[in-house]
Known about the structure:
The structure is a homodimer. The first copy, chain A, is built from 6 helices and 8 strands.
Amino acid sequence: MKVYVLRMGHRISRDKRITTHVGLAARAFGADGIIISGDMDQNVLSTLSKIVEVWGGPFTIRYERDWRRVIEDYKRSGWKIIHLTMYGIPLPDVIESIRMDPSDKLVIVGSEKVPGIVYKLADLNVAVTSQPHSEVSALAVFLDRLFEGREFYKEFTSAKLKIIPQERGKKILKLIEG
Amino acid sequence: MKVYVLRMGHRISRDKRITTHVGLAARAFGADGIIISGDMDQNVLSTLSKIVEVWGGPFTIRYERDWRRVIEDYKRSGWKIIHLTMYGIPLPDVIESIRMDPSDKLVIVGSEKVPGIVYKLADLNVAVTSQPHSEVSALAVFLDRLFEGREFYKEFTSAKLKIIPQERGKKILKLIEG
């Protein structure tokens, strides 16, 4: 099962750091890649690429102007489209059936205002709580529930740095490949 | 068991939205309040207060200049200090003992650079994955694991708005109290 994240409605001025955090959370919690839509923002794309270069992958990062075409293309290819929104069905009610479905998944996280058509194009509108919070937290909790914590044991390939867990302080392994 | 979040090192210019998202995630995922340290930022405090006013509480929000005194005060009062950091012990290895411990908890999330002393003052340094991601996602996944999803059923009091989950579209209940 492949999982891609579609980050919609990125605005350079407001969302620079939030979209970066969405990308980092997508990678850390086991998604295979992120597609960013909205303003084209080279800084966010290169910040995320640098993280993959240093901390490993695979994790693909790309920009697409036309989010609607992205959704429709993935849908046609048999991917399940899951839109995370506070207005949807509570995650605990649907996570098991999502997990059981072996289809690849496109997980949509929006910015402030998501067009109504997204709710219709999505196979599922899922609420990670029905309270206002953050696309970053919604995505992370969704992925943690989807992978049931297996993402904690994911090995990233071609990493240059790796952390060795410590009770206190920091221990970083620098990997040198010939 | 009470849970407060201490957000350290807030910088007005960079962290405005990230700290707001930390506060929203803290509230949505069941924490009782947030203490913000770093730059004093009235905008973040009032954005969070407005959310509580509209979507309900209880959820306390306050600013404290001196984060070290906050940590030491809570520690002296018997609270467990849990610092979320990618360098710590993996969450799956410690979450059960954290859950079993009935003590109140102060959960620290830092910004870019956390002073070394925090790792020493903390009773536990916990890694929500050992990968770079976001204080917003780290906090949300930590709280979701701590409360084992019970936060999804939390009722907020004095809410003016409440969402009724829908398969498609949005349904908001406006609560009018006499």
